[in-house]
Design a protein that fits this description.
This protein is α/β, with parallel strands linked by helices. It is 33% helix and 16% strand. Helix 9 packs parallel to helix 13.
């Protein structure tokens, strides 16, 4: 629940002041768009960001507090409030993230970048910070300026360390957590890439959040046109994957697909023919790459036409369906040559090496495009 400094014995005077204010201040009292559950009360200090119009506030013990960095924002002091419960559910459950179309960001750098980025800025919904985070030497002042500037657009709360610890998934929280809307899925008919030979990425069961995040960072770095996520793959909008990607998740268009056939159909709409879909395999140990048609990644002509790179699960590799399509020649295979005795490359390393080879080959045309 919120402390008394937000609606304790000052609540009646606060409401009286509020009712006399100009209409442009009323948005501080309205329900945020993502709290659409009818069970949420319309007057609930735990969920709304109201400016404190007094320079002094009353604590839960009845004493007056001194002005601090976060005095102008409501305090969340209970780990049992609706906001904290929502954030904890979003941290743990993919289904909840899909239902609410929300995800969680943690840490100074990630939240700051999200607030200032043109893609993620409009998606930000709620920022919760501690006094300690606002006092940070490197990021505190900038964070305070940003949340002040955005407080009319997003919900901003100060919270106790106990509340932040309950909200965060990291071992040592930095005192900053935020809710962000998951962006709309990639639509090939509307979001076609203007480059002559874009590359698309396919996650065929890539399940480790760290690998997913690294791949998305590489994808953003080389300008991947879109990522297709097959079943059994890690949720790219899971908090762990987002932290690993350091914001790159929101810089690359993403589309979840239910099957390989659906993925190939969407790729065709993007101009990618089946013979330009390459499944990354091992050049010696992976059964799907025993075929002599498997090409070294630097022998593939990546710059002539739109293409796609498919990456399999870290342990078991490509799915049976992808292996079958490779064996039948419906799609091609590619590998990264290695010295003898090396069993495999990390999925993120393998994918990144190939993506940067595409970037290298295409780099000569970037200036013209």
């Amino acid at each position: 629940m919120a402390s008394k400094h937000s609606f304790g014995h000052n609540i009646l005077s606060w409401r009286t002041r509020y009712c006399c204010m100009a209409n442009h201040r009323r948005h501080h009292f309205e329900r945020p768009p993502y709290y659409n559950n009818s069970r949420v009360g319309v007057f609930d200090g735990r969920l709304f960001s109201k400016k404190a119009y007094s320079t002094t506030t009353t604590t839960t013990t009845g004493s007056t507090t001194s002005s601090g960095h976060g005095d102008e924002f409501d305090l969340i002091s209970s780990t049992k409030c609706t906001t904290v419960k929502l954030i904890r559910a979003l941290q743990k459950k993919r289904k909840k993230r899909e239902e609410e179309q929300l995800t969680v960001l943690e840490g100074h750098r990630l939240v700051l970048d999200a607030l200032t980025d043109k893609n993620t800025g409009p998606l930000m919904r709620h920022v919760i910070i501690t006094e300690r985070a606002l006092a940070h030497d490197g990021y505190g002042e900038k964070l305070m300026d940003l949340v002040r500037a955005r407080s009319g657009e997003i919900v901003v709360n100060v919270a106790t360390d106990e509340v932040i610890n309950a909200c965060c998934d990291t071992v040592t929280p930095q005192g900053v957590v935020a809710l962000c809307t998951i962006p709309p899925e990639f639509n090939p008919t509307k979001d076609l890439n203007s480059r002559a030979a874009p590359i698309y990425l396919i996650f065929d069961g890539v399940s480790d959040p760290g690998n997913v995040g690294t791949l998305l960072r590489s994808a953003a770095a080389v300008g991947v046109a879109g990522v297709f996520v097959l079943p059994d793959s890690c949720d790219v909008f899971g908090p762990k994957a987002i932290r690993s990607a350091m914001g790159a998740t929101f810089k690359v268009p993403v589309r979840s697909v239910s099957s390989v056939d659906e993925c190939l159909k969407l790729l065709a709409e993007c101009g990618v023919t089946a013979n330009n879909v390459f499944a990354a395999t091992m050049d010696t140990s992976d059964g799907a790459s025993d075929d002599a048609s498997s090409l070294a990644h630097y022998h593939v002509d990546w710059k002539s036409a739109p293409s796609a790179l498919c990456l399999g699960q870290e342990g078991s590799g490509l799915s049976d369906t992808i292996r079958h399509y490779v064996a039948k020649g419906r799609i091609n295979s590619v590998h990264v040559p290695m010295m003898p005795g090396i069993e495999s490359l990390n999925a993120a390393v393998c994918g990144s090496v190939i993506m940067f080879e595409h970037f290298r080959q295409s780099n000569n045309n970037l200036a013209e495009q």
